[in-house]
Design goal:
Blueprint: E1 2-9, H1 14-27, E2 31-38, E3 46-54, E4 66-72, H2 75-82, E5 91-95, E6 98-103, H3 106-115, E7 121-134, E8 152-156, H4 158-166, H5 175-186, H6 191-201, H7 206-219, E9 221-224
Parallel strand pairs: 1-4, 4-7, 7-8
Antiparallel strand pairs: 1-3, 2-3, 5-6, 6-7, 8-9
Length: about 230
């Protein structure tokens, strides 16, 4: 089973990206689930989507603490993943054991109220995991902690692509672009399935959004690390 974190800002479309990835998996005869965790602000607030993908039925309905892949939709989130910083209730930073993302869902917040605990849990990248980031940096310019050992680092400037397709916006729409890149970098979903899911999600703007996914697929630069 693959477990993926989609991390973005409200307005970039991480939640809908997760929905499209679920439907794309169904088209391939696979099983998938996606559920979002919102910060206190929806628009421009941090949104984390927990996504699972498997060839078999998925029985787990909980969040997870280790991910096979991080899809980071904003450069700020990449910087937070690789250096100090925090965001609540979804936060990122650098611990002695390496980069992490911290999240608190509704059940955790209830436990804080009843038990007085911190309620924060770190989501880390698994050994040999994949990092896909929306950034102006090249993959070889990304620096992660010595304790983090990805097999691939992929980058693309999704903001530039977004402006070409959707026009200039305060918060660029990058969800379709990033899941196109995901299809190329991981091969866990096919681009055709992703595009079919996008067409279903936006029937009135199929060409626009399909082209965005194709451009994301083509723009992703991948560094193989073993």
């Amino acid at each position: 089973m693959r477990e993926i974190i989609l991390e973005g800002l409200g307005g970039q479309g991480p939640r809908i990206a997760g929905d499209c990835m679920v439907y794309a998996a169904f088209l391939e005869g696979k099983h998938a689930q996606a559920f979002p965790c919102y910060g206190p602000g929806r628009r421009s607030g941090v949104v984390t989507v927990f996504y699972r993908l498997d060839d078999k039925p998925i029985r787990r309905k909980c969040t997870f603490l280790e991910a096979d892949c991080f899809i980071l939709m904003h450069e700020y989130l990449l910087k937070a993943f690789t250096s100090k910083g925090s965001m609540l209730p979804v936060a990122a930073g650098l611990s002695p054991k390496g980069p992490y993302l911290v999240r608190a869902d509704d059940s955790v917040l209830r436990s804080i109220a009843s038990a007085g605990g911190t309620g924060l849990e770190a989501v880390k990248l698994k050994e040999g995991g994949v990092i896909i980031a929306n950034t102006t940096l090249k993959p070889e310019e990304i620096r992660v902690g010595r304790e983090v050992h990805p097999s691939k680092i992929a980058t693309l400037d999704a903001n530039v692509i977004s402006e070409k397709i959707y026009g200039r916006r305060p918060i660029p729409i990058v969800n379709t672009i990033m899941i196109g890149a995901f299809a190329r970098v991981t091969s866990w979903l096919k681009l055709d399935s992703v595009i079919a899911a996008i067409r279903r999600q936006w029937p009135s703007a199929t060409d626009l959004n399909s082209n965005a996914a194709k451009m994301g697929y083509e723009a992703a630069e991948v560094l193989e690390l073993g």
